[in-house]
Amino acid sequence: MEVLTKNVECGNILVVAKRNKILEGSIMVNTNKLKGRIVEQGLTFGSLAQKVGISPSTLGRKIRNVSDMTLEEVERIRDILNIPTNRIMEYFFTEYQE
């Protein structure tokens, strides 16, 4: 299996994740790091959830790894929080488990 690297290029996240067979249920969020980024960007769970198109409680479950996060949601959150593409692996895909 090809190893995901931290130098993922913008637009290649879905391709690399699919190539490595990372399915929706396998995306693990670095909860503390993502919560910190939300605060750094001056957002709340409610405002981020609205921009992503989900409820705040659903966002909370996804960030705490209780519910699955889709690859599309990862891309939306990355864009909203201005996460640099070369740092996406620090926030998502942190503990891939088969």
What can be said about the biggest beta sheet? Answer: none
Cα end-to-end separation: 12 Å
Which secondary-structure class do the elements indicate?
Answer: mainly alpha
Task: Output mean pLDDT.
Answer: 77
Protein model, in words:
It is a single chain. With 98 residues, the protein is mostly helical. It has a single domain (13-91), classed as 434 Repressor (Amino-terminal Domain) (Orthogonal Bundle). It is built from six helices and no strands. It has helices at residues 13-19, 31-40, 45-52, 56-63, 71-80, 88-91. Helix 3 crosses helix 4. The longest helix has 10 residues, at 31-40.
Brief summary of the model shown:
The chain is mostly helical.
Which terms would index this structure?
mainly alpha
Map the helices and strands.
Layout: H1 13-19, H2 31-40, H3 45-52, H4 56-63, H5 71-80, H6 88-91
